[in-house]
Specification:
It is a multi-pass membrane protein. This is ceramide glucosyltransferase. The protein folds into four domains: 41 residues, no CATH class; 123 residues, OB fold (Dihydrolipoamide Acetyltransferase, E2P) (Beta Barrel); 173 residues, Spore Coat Polysaccharide Biosynthesis Protein SpsA, Chain A; 133 residues, no CATH class. Helix content is 40%, strand content 25%. It contains 17 helices and 28 strands. The strands form six sheets. It has a seven-stranded mixed sheet with strand order 18-17-16-19-23-21-24, sandwiched between helices. The chain has a five-stranded mixed sheet with strand order 5-6-10-9-8. Strands 11-12-13-15-14 form a five-stranded mixed beta barrel. The N and C termini lie far apart (68 Å). The chain binds the ligand CCCCCCCC/C=C\CCCCCCCC(=O)N[C@@H](CO)[C@H](O)/C=C/CCCCCCCCCCCCC and uridine-5'-diphosphate-xylopyranose (UDX). The site of the ligand CCCCCCCC/C=C\CCCCCCCC(=O)N[C@@H](CO)[C@H](O)/C=C/CCCCCCCCCCCCC has 23 residues, from helix 10, helix 12, helix 13 and helix 14.
Length: 587
């Protein structure tokens, strides 16, 4: 921190706002590890004295804020300035990575992410593209007129000077085609707000790729970061297609309202939300109604009562909503999922003529407690490695907590109800797409599970249920799945190398575990794409717990095949057909 800082005039758990004797204001983040090196110090420097004070806020028209994007979303917008931590700013400077770029109406849009959040930054197509061409043409004409010297050269010189200025301003905003996904950029602009969403109107746009560290390069070597977090740009004048989002709800947890709210605030031009609640007295209905009132412009409907079209209670719950859906793309999204503002756009961008399904790889939001750490470790290591490997090999490993699919393909099979006789409808839906020649793709955004109910017992129950589904559907996994566990394969590898090469088995086993552990840490950091919410010691404990309990859970699943899902019990036949143990209908 600067030595000449003399006055702390605002602090909280995240920020310290200070001024020095010249009246300069500095906002410093307390927790700096999440940020890019460049944005560690959020210094707004303006030599002018405050021009005026308004409602006790220091106000300088020319102030430029350099803030986290997540904080920009919390800033209060008013007239031609915005307020953050009691400081008024006229404009802002952002630093981050371009995660998406597309044309929307008259605007070129760039989605910028700085690791804390993302925001849409836009500039008029006309300004960016045609104006530059127009300017260059005019300049050419002026130059040739000046060369011929048959008009008043002074006027021409002034005109040339002015046009050059205009071109300089315009050249600070690139064309959309000049921007690449993954570019690190610096944007200066004005904050704007529409429909409770913040946007930045770009005044200046600079590429800045000078800050890639060794870690970044290593990750890129592995190519996983590219596959997971770099998003394809679709530069097109055609707006993205409409999406019908099916949200099956059953009961309420402490995070439900905030999770569902993220579906009302997505940056996507046309979508409808179709909530399904089986029990008409379910308190989830009240939560959805409150959100509908808060966001009246979002097209949202609630379907209650469900319909019994099969054994799978999730399918029974959403089938009516599915049949009422209006768009050609269907997103089935479980109740505990949170969406980033640009996730839906990213998923749609991953569709191609041959891709029928785009799914999000299961992962978790940052939450506190051992259970949350354990969940993050499981999804970011043991599960990600198989999920990504399966994706690479084109094998079906689809988990249906957030899946975008083409309705036309489902309809050809007889609709969603066709899959109601399976408990693992997700696996069979994906298999059906594959069998019909369609490809599956993984979204760049991992699925952010954020259920408010997070404890070790229910997490293990869930893993147990999934293991039972897998064993019934793909019996070969009885053999292969234990072999994919670090402790089990390590044991066999140590035994065989000691037999074949006379290696010391204990040393081999410990080195194997250490290497596996380190690879898992790297993989988890890649999937997280930012700082982890726990330290290395927590990781060691969570990782050891997961690795030791994994094979044990698998054994349990194998020994007792009865499946409990929420308030119902099921059993599965080999192949995956389900039967409810107090059946209500026959499949
Ligand atoms: C010598 C080592 C051989 C390794 C073979 C790998 C065997 C697969 C091991 C574990 C499977 C983990 C699956 C991860 C996520 C599944 C989550 C889940 O169970 N979801 C269900 C509920 O939503 C869903 O219905 C099931 C979906 C997929 C089940 C089929 C999994 C087959 C995976 C085969 C992957 C092959 C990858 C090959 C890697 C070398
Ligand atoms: O009886 C039920 C159970 C569940 N559901 C809904 O189904 C969704 C998933 O339920 P849970 O969160 O309990 O289950 P999981 O996260 O384990 O689901 C996962 O595994 C089983 C697959 O069939 C699912 O597609 C997959 O998302 C939720 O939105 C839930 O509200 C119902 O509508 N009715």
């Amino acid at each position: 921190m600067d030595a000449n800082l003399i006055n702390i005039f605002y602090t909280d758990k995240d920020w310290i706002v200070t001024t020095n004797q010249n009246g300069k204001t500095k906002i410093t983040a307390r927790n700096e590890n999440e940020l890019h090196e460049e944005t560690k110090n959020f210094i707004e420097i303006e030599d002018k004295k405050p021009e005026t004070t308004r409602e006790n806020y220091v106000f300088m028209k020319t102030k430029i804020a350099r803030l986290f994007i997540s904080d920009i979303h919390c800033a209060v917008k008013s007239d031609d300035y915005f307020k953050f931590k009691n400081v008024l700013f006229a404009g802002l400077e952002l630093f981050g990575t371009v995660t998406s770029a597309y044309v929307h109406g008259d605007y070129n849009c760039v989605v910028l992410d700085d690791g804390t959040s993302n925001i849409i930054c836009l500039f008029k197509k006309y300004i960016a593209d045609e104006a530059k061409i127009h300017c260059d043409k005019k300049l050419q004409n002026f130059y040739s007129a000046l060369k011929n010297d048959n008009t008043d050269s002074l006027i021409l010189k002034v005109a040339i000077m002015m046009k050059k200025n205009t071109r300089d301003v315009l050249s600070k905003v690139p064309r959309l085609t000049e921007i690449n996904i993954g570019d690190t950029v610096r944007i200066v602009g004005k904050l704007s707000e529409y429909n409770n969403k913040k946007y930045v109107f770009i005044n200046r746009f600079n590429l800045d790729n000078s800050n890639q560290g060794l870690e970044d390069n290593l990750k890129q070597l592995l190519d996983l970061k590219y596959r997971l977090h770099k998003i394809q740009a679709i530069v097109s004048d055609v707006p993205p297609p409409g999406v019908s989002i099916l949200k099956p709800l059953m009961g309420v947890d402490p995070n439900l309202s905030s999770n569902l709210e993220t579906f009302f605030t997505m940056n996507y031009p046309s979508y409808e939300l179709l909530f399904s609640v089986e029990d008409k007295k379910d308190p989830a209905i009240e939560i959805v109604n409150t959100l509908k009132e808060k966001y009246p412009k979002v097209d949202a409907t609630i379907y209650t009562g469900g319909s019994t079209v099969g054994v799978n209670p999730k399918i029974n719950n959403i089938n009516t909503a599915y049949e009422a859906s209006n768009y050609d793309l269907i997103l089935i999204s479980d109740s505990g999922i949170r969406m980033k503002e640009d996730t839906l756009l990213d998923m749609v961008n991953h569709l191609s003529d041959r891709t029928g399904i785009v799914h999000q790889m299961p992962f978790t939001c940052d939450r506190n407690g051992f259970a949350a750490t354990l969940e993050k470790i499981y999804f970011g290591t043991a599960q990600s490695r198989i999920y990504l490997a399966a994706d690479l090999l084109g094998t079906n490993c689809h988990t249906g907590m957030s899946t975008l699919m083409r309705k036309q393909v489902l309809e050809q099979q007889g609709g969603l109800k066709k899959f109601g006789c399976y408990l693992a409808e997700d696996y069979f839906i994906a298999q059906c797409f594959l069998d019909n020649g369609w490809r599956l793709a993984i979204s760049s955004h991992p699925a952010l599970q954020n259920s408010g109910t997070c404890d070790v017992h229910s997490f293990q129950e869930r893993l147990l249920r999934w293991a039972k589904l897998r064993v019934a559907m793909v019996p070969l996994l009885i053999l292969l799945e234990p072999l994919s566990e670090c402790m089990v394969i390590g044991f066999f590898a140590a035994w065989s190398t000691s037999y074949l090469f006379k290696f010391e088995p204990l040393v081999f086993y410990l080195v194997h575990i250490l290497l596996w552990f380190m690879c898992d840490w790297i993989l988890l950091s890649i999937v997280q794409n930012g700082s982890l919410p726990f330290n290395k010691f927590d990781f060691i404990i969570g990782w050891l717990f997961r690795e030791c309990s994994g094979p044990y859970l698998f054994l349990l699943a194998f020994m007792n095949p009865a499946i409990r899902w929420r308030n119902r019990m099921f059993k599965l036949a080999w192949g995956g057909l389900a039967q409810e143990i107090n059946p209500r209908i026959k499949c």
